[in-house]
Design a protein that fits this description.
Length: about 170
């Protein structure tokens, strides 16, 4: 199942262009993925995501660290949500993340799109969480030696989905 999920997302941890002035060694980022297992007593345990299967919940944690001696201004932490998963919207930490289906246009959750009804009226229709691909937190300054951690969870589908239709 995980082989089907494109983990090219690891390379998609991005920082808005305001960070571009910082040297590459000034900011480091890591992305960890864990499978969340609920034990018999109701507590949660993090396990390797390598053995994840249908219906499992994965937690994605991105950590940014300022390795420099100066402030990195307007860092906008962005977390990819892999294709083939469904975002659990209340799991985004810290609160206040914006979401996107394309990595370009971000808005508050829940995302909506215009849909034409049979009577010709346009209405806002919620976008399914399985179509969300990125979360981005509002830009903030990251001081020397400081770290920022963002996280969200997504569920693997219960049933493998077939090939996506061509558009």
């Amino acid at each position: 199942m995980l082989a089907r999920i494109r983990f090219e997302s690891f390379a998609l941890l991005t920082v808005m262009s305001a960070w571009a002035a910082a040297q590459p060694a000034d900011l480091s980022s890591t992305l960890r993925v864990s499978r969340i297992v609920v034990t018999a007593d109701g507590s949660e345990v993090r396990r390797s995501a390598d053995s994840a299967g249908p219906g499992d919940v994965l937690e994605y944690v991105a950590e940014y660290h300022n390795n420099s001696t100066h402030v990195i201004r307007q860092l906008a932490a962005t977390l990819p949500i892999p294709d083939g998963t469904e975002l659990l919207p209340t799991s985004a930490l810290p609160a206040g993340a914006l979401a996107s289906t394309d990595g370009t246009h971000f808005s508050v959750v829940p995302l909506t799109r215009k849909a034409l009804q049979a009577d010709g009226k346009l209405v806002d229709q919620p976008i399914p969480y399985r179509e969300y691909r990125y979360l981005r937190w509002p830009p903030r300054d990251l001081f020397a030696g400081q770290s920022l951690q963002v996280a969200a969870r997504a569920r693997l589908p219960d049933e493998p989905s077939g090939p996506r239709p061509a558009h």
